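Bug #77: duplicate submission created two jobs. Keeping one. Sequence:
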Amino acid sequence: MYQGFCIINECNITQNRVFEDCGGYWVQEITSDSYITCVNVVENNQSLDSFNSHRSSYSYSSKFKVTSCNYIRNKSPNRGYLISSFCDVFMSYCCILKNEIKYIFNAFSKSITFENSATDIIKSTETSPTFKNTDISFENECPLFKLEVDDSSKYKCRPSTPNNDENEENEDKIYVRNHIKFFYLFLSRK
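Kept job's structure:
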């Protein structure tokens, strides 16, 4: 996406295999504050550069607000970045787990604020992120999403049921758990 105001909402970016391109999302030259919400970036592979890039136009001081997003099991065998920023990025209620990428965060002369979220790796280049309230224990799953992969590599989305945790047949499936309900509750609070 290029120029203007950007909203990415309720997207699955999954299983991309790229060599010299972006395995996740690439947004640049925004001219006003932009939003990324309820996005799953799962099991993408790329050879180099940034998976998910946030850039504002040089003549604007626009910011990105990233809320309720998951970045799970992405790979980059060479020098790569999972979250790259050329503008201020505020991440909240996000989960970053099981990625095989040299650097998770890369902020070029701007800042990344990572709060009320969890990551299993904090390795960064350039400016280190600001971590706030990240001592949340997500253990094997994220509180907003429960992500698992089925054998056919097809993703399914449905509300979870009480039997999902007890039934071994459901262990290898992916479900997004009530994230929209939580998201709207979060936005309505002032």
